[in-house]
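pasting for the record
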Amino acid sequence: MVAVGVVLLMVVAVGGGRFLLGRERWPLPPPDVAFPEQVRFRVHLCEQAFEMCSAANLARARETERVEAALKALPQVASLTYVGDRQAARQYRRIWGTDVGSSWWEPGVRNLGGTFTGTLRRPGDFYAMIRLGERVPGVQGFSREPTGFWTGKADLEVQLCGNESPGPCRERQPRGPATEAEKRAIVDKLRELKGIKAVYLEDREHASRLAKLYVPEQAGSPEAQPASMAESYYLKLDSPTLMTKVRLAINAMPGIQGIYPVL
């Protein structure tokens, strides 16, 4: 019995050592996998807010079944789903509501109109689809709907202050990017929390590559270059229900621009 107890103690010690060693290696680099194919898009229907929408197009935008049939007939469109105004508002709140939490954006959320989300047959079909789709009555325009690199790989993004950071990073005091000391303090705090499987650091170069992938039309703009990017920690949790716990533990720490769920 004594021998068995000794063996068990050794196993626990070794297991604990491995666990601690894993946390000591945080933050990890982004997973070395292929970037996701970008084939998703969103269709914006005419609304009162758009000055270019005529009365006739406003009326046609409400005939969602006709609009859907016309869009589905486009050869570049592989799939299409209608998103009503209430569902669009729920999606918006899910992404931003827990972080923004101020009254200025709420009227805009309440007045969100319905949209369509869809997928292309090939990534290169976007402009050909627009040329045909803009002729569909009731359609105001199109935008890309990025397929996120971090979807499924992380549950929470902790965005750090950068060179051009708005919001909390500026409101607290004029400052530059998160310092190395601030970054170390954030990671040290994350090591103390239970329920975090992994912490990844997305550097400015990786963030820039994703920005150019998601919106290739802006690949040459200053905003998409590494110098304009902010670094982020991406957290993989044992359960998404731990998001609030993590947020409360680190939200007030210096160097953090915002904390957002990964969808």
